[in-house]
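Recall from the previous chapter that SMILES is a line notation for molecules. Here it describes pyridoxal-5'-phosphate.
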Amino acid sequence: VPVEWSSAGVDLHVEWDRSRRGRLRLAEVLRNAIRAGRLTPGTRLPSTRSLAADLGLARGTVTKAYEQLAVEGFVLTRPGAPTTVAAWSPAPRAPTSPSVQPPRPRWDLRPCRPDVSAFPRVQWEAASRRILQRISTDDLDYGNSQGHPALRTALAEYLGRARGVVTTPERIVVCNGYRHALSLLCTILADKGVPSLAIEDPSLPAFRELAQRAGLRTDPVRVDHRGVRVEDIDAAAVVVTPAHQYPLGVTMHRERRAELVELAARGVTVIEDDYDGEFRFTQPPVGALQAIAPDHIIYAGTASKTLAPAVRLGWIVLPEHLVAPVCELLELTERQGSVLDQLVLAELITSGNYDQQVRRQRSSYLQRRRRLMAELQHLVVPAAPRLPRGIEAGLHTVFPLPDGLSETDVAAAANAESIGIDVLGRYWMHGGAHPQAIIIGYAAAPDHGFAPAVFALKTVLDRLTP
Ligand SMILES: Cc1ncc(COP(=O)(O)O)c(C=O)c1O
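With both inputs in hand, we obtain:
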């Protein structure tokens, strides 16, 4: 029975048979924990005073157990410093986790990545400090699963002003990024008995897998130069990227937008993924589709491109009748997201720092795009592209390959040279032959790397060209 939990120290979980107390037993338990890898090299052990108090032992017993382990080489004791598990202790090697990220390529031209080096660290830190100074004790407790009202209010103002979204704070639900939004919505759709979700073809494979795991069938709908072919949608729900189709990069034509709105008014659930709508460079801005039919279209956005994917904040603007079901599901699965981060984002928006960041990045991404495009001129001119041409927007471009070149061969050879690129092939849903193309992101790599990266890519293409 612990004698004093409130003493300074670190926690250590020790399990033993209380009938066999003493130094030898404690040393044995700790030795086993180190051998099993439960206590890893470098782990700081509690002070003898605190462990003795926690375990109800004499301090001398703990001291002797530590000394014994030090003699055996399991722990390291130094005067005036905490006892730590020795670096050379015979702990088993931790198995490598499958979730470990592969190292960043030397030239990171992978799409879907913003320039995280431009994350507004100073502004985020200042906003965090302000929030910590004034956050109420109530806000530190379990709160509103819909998202903190301060963020929903800030988002309603921002989305209305910058993206043309028609909403009130009451219709916004805060979540952990778009992927989370889609997951929540797919679960709700499956619960309602919707059998299938129409998905743009091509589109991100992870999103379709997510829908399938929620129990929905996924129906491909082809995309052409006017965006998704609305007349081909034959499902009760559809996900679209109207501002900038991912990955092809086209904008949905106004006639298609009107057809989609009509479909939504007839009861089809339309989910609008506005993942990079802020980053339109030379084209006239196109507002959210949701604005035309706010009672029928679900709008989803994210901070992953404007700030950084690590922020894990996204938002869903819902027709009124869907707010309660989404919040109930969130309450059950998440309870709520991080209120501290939500308040920091609200502070960034209301202070104007978020707009400044978006505007700075918009200009930076346009420069980067132009520099990349200029470099890509040095590559073999692709044969007549059989793909719809993307607009000057977002963080990526699709580069069709000349006839005879396989995109997977090109990507493998490029990856071997540490050039990170993506292939269009993995985005298609329909089978059969596809035009070969690579997808190049221009946001993540420093732009002074574009010339050597494209030169390296050219070497790869020259080598592979029959
Ligand atoms: C089409 C599309 N939608 C949404 C997202 C954003 O996802 P999240 O907010 O989960 O990071 C991405 C990210 O790459 C994307 O490519």
